[in-house]
Amino acid sequence: MTVTAITLIILAGAYLAGLLGSLTGLGGGVVIIPLLTLLLNVNIHYAIGASLVSVIATSSGSAAAYVKEGITNVRLGMFLEIATTIGAMIGAVLALYMQTNVIAVIFGLILIFSALMSLKNKKEQIETKPNLWSEKLNLNSSFPSANGVVSYNVKNVGGGFFMMLFAGVISGLLGIGSGALKVVAMDGVMRIPFKVSTTTSNFMIGVTAAASAVVYLQRGYIDPGLSMPVVIGVLLGALTGSKILVHTSSAGWLRWVFAVIVTFLAVQMIYNGLNHKI
Amino acid sequence: MSLTQPKLHDTDIQRIIGWILRVGVILSMLVVFIGGCVYLYRHGAETVHYKEFIGVPGFVHSASGIWHGILTFRGRAIIQAGIVLLIATPVVRVIFSAIGFALERDWLYTVITLVVLVIIAASALTGHAG
């Protein structure tokens, strides 16, 4: 294929991936990697490198908007970034030694898990019980809502930190934001309000991805010719997605459609991985 | 140090952080786009495939190579410079967070933020070794 042809195809695919990723909340990375590897026969190392770059672009772009609103818990994000960056460094180094088909299988499994997570109904929770560590670390905070300022406490700091370490490893290994795992750590383990965990997770994704991107960059995983249409396409797709999201607040069926597509891609990745086709 | 006292400063720092992130993304995307146009103009008709992993071309693999590539107007070197700029954006954000916490005299978080910077630096060095 000529450079122009493949660039245009990837640009269109990345736009769709960014749109899908933004609408489902899964992130563009989880869609662009199967697209590149399954449809365009791109080596998974290049796909991961390009995806990681697009993850930095989308998360930084949207974090800029969220931080201004004052919902992001910057201290909590900073503290947990210790865990995610250590994890990301480990993940990126692991990726250098792991067989590509093993990476494909792990990717598929995380993809299915993320799709299931995106279907779960989120209900707002406010933890009010005091916690020794979250007080010591000054993690408890508040956020503005329609009913005034809501204060909340953070639970199980150690458990959340450990979960974030794992999220970092997965992010560094697979070149995705692993937003689903970050939300598990913050919603499930640390009992943070949904609005705060989503924006704080997004705030952390860029730094986490940067920690593994510096490894990838030096190992030649980030190919400029391939990354260029990926990063531009995913970012534009995500921008479009964020505009649509504002207008259609209850698109439950849409999430189901996407979850089915994503699961289909995941099964393909696992199948190809098990048969050493990737 | 009370729990509610530093909130006012927080919003100032957060505004600056938001600004850094936005400018970083816009600037790096602009560079990537310009590089992409040059790359397509010069190499658009060539064939390419990414099936085998062979790393990246030598001239985009080092800082000096990228710099030289920019001076000789090579598309992929310009793209790679944009990508480096993009990767640097969240790192610059962390540096400003550290400054922000230090200005608030929140030493605990100044240290936490510096630890994150050290980890990223260590990660960059890991890439060099071996």
Tell me the layout of helices and strands.
The complex is a heterodimer of chains A (278) and B (130).
Chain A: H1 3-24, H2 29-39, H3 44-69, H4 74-97, H5 100-119, H6 132-136, E1 141-145, E2 148-152, H7 157-174, H8 179-189, H9 194-219, H10 224-247, H11 252-274
Antiparallel strand pairs in A: 1-2
Chain B: H1 7-43, H2 63-71, H3 75-103, H4 107-128
Structure overview:
The complex is a heterodimer of chains A (278) and B (130). Chain A is mainly α. Chain A has one domain. Chain A is built from 11 helices and 2 strands. Chain A has helices spanning 3-24, 29-39, 44-69, 74-97, 100-119, 132-136, 157-174, 179-189, 194-219, 224-247, 252-274; strands at 141-145, 148-152. In chain A, strands 1-2 form a two-stranded antiparallel ribbon. In chain A, strand 1 (141-145) and strand 2 form a beta hairpin. In chain A, helix 1 (3-24) packs antiparallel against helix 2 (29-39), helix 1 packs parallel to helix 10 and helix 2 (29-39) crosses helix 11. Chain A is globular. Chain A starts with a helix and ends with a helix. The relative contact order of chain A is 0.23. The model of chain A has no long low-confidence stretch (mean pLDDT 88). By secondary structure, chain B is mostly helical. Chain B has one domain. Chain B is 75% helix and 0% strand. In chain B, helix 1 (7-43) packs antiparallel against helix 3, helix 2 (63-71) packs across helix 3 (75-103) and helix 3 runs antiparallel to helix 4. The longest helix of chain B has 37 residues, at 7-43. Chain B is elongated and about 55 Å long. Chain B starts with 6 loop residues before the first helix and ends with a helix. Chains A and B meet through helix 1, helix 3, helix 4, helix 9 and helix 10 of A and helix 1, helix 3 and helix 4 of B.
